[in-house]
## 1
Amino acid sequence: MAKTQTIPDWKASADEIWAILRETTRKQEETSQQMKETDRKMQETAQQMQETTQQMQKTAQQMKETDRRVGKLTNRFGEMVEYMIVPNLVARFHDLGFEFEKTHRGTEIRDKDNNIFTEVDVFLENGDKVMIVETKAKPSVDDINEHIKRMEKLRKYADLHNDKRKYLGAIAGVVFGESQKTAALKKGFYVIEPSGDTFSIIVPEGKYHPHEW
């Protein structure tokens, strides 16, 4: 007896293929949509990063401008301190036993041959001593350390010009913090600060003493 052959159900196979094709097409469309969404988000992120960079640049520029204005204002305060104390500075130091004969403001030392460059706010002098006064709105420890370097430069410049006088230093400020005041006195500087309608000069004494360069 002949063997019976099973005929494939071509209709069912075709339906399955169409289903697979439809599902594949759907998934491709979803993937394409997801890729478009991802691309859109990446573009938004890039735009946000660009805006952030621009904002950071703008902020940096504003900070730079603020620093410039603060620096200018601080310089003006320094000038105000000079104008407040200079007229009576010689008299105040006279009370402490100094007899300064000359007063100079805004003195510059520019010795290219010996590489000595510095500026002095107030320069008091006589035949034996020189008082170098640095004026600041709010003196800092860095200002005190810079004044030490200034005094060392001036001593070197004086020696090169056979100036054997003793050099002393002072720091004047509108606002003097206690730690800054102590630091200045510890380094041997006279401290000049407001007192009522005028100003007072604090002498480094006790465990501290005026430093001579």
## 2
Amino acid sequence: MADHQATAAQIAEAGRDLDARGLLASFEGNLSVRLDDSLILTTPTGAHKGRLAPEEMVVVDASGTTVGQGKASSEVKLHLAIYEERADVGAIVHAHPPTATGYAVAGVPLPHGALAESTALFGCVPVAPYGTPSTAALADSVREPVRTFDAILLANHGAVTVGQDLNEAKERMVQLEHFAHIALVAHLLGGAQALEPDQIAEISQMRESAGGGPIPPVCYPAPEQAGTITLSHDELVRLIADAVRTIG
């Protein structure tokens, strides 16, 4: 079982760091750490995550019932669903990083294979279907994607990252926002130029050699349709007129 007091201090420090980086604001977001197979330690409801004291953290069991004092965030359902799906996950960060959340609000996944480092780290970052915050619908929306991905955008809401420990989950949130900012700049400059499939495969092999899993096939950029022809409005009108005269 993880040391309760030390873990509480780590959560408080992570909250201050995320707040200082602008990845969550005021009462937004929540963090948790798995203490053992049946208990998690999480941030309390209605609290500024950048100003938490270790003694304010709340212990809940696998059903979300508080063990001891305090009241956990209503988003604890999201955390419990992820822990249920992933035995390897030891910590979770849910935040509203501005750029990444902009993609989530737009319903736009971050571009696949656009940045070598993010491809190696995340594979890709999907957008989970919308679920009303604090409800079972939100928790259920991440069950399928979290089986494969360590970072997920939550439609019209925010983002969630997972890790073997709290530092890994937190740093993945930092990297997610960094990648989203780069992706947005690339979009403004005309669009990200995706890596070639063989280049992504090479990154996947490197990731596996380092002990990670292979990059899922869904993370490879979709090939452009071969033979696609683009016509202007005038060209299309002339083409149709020619076809009508030919038929007549």
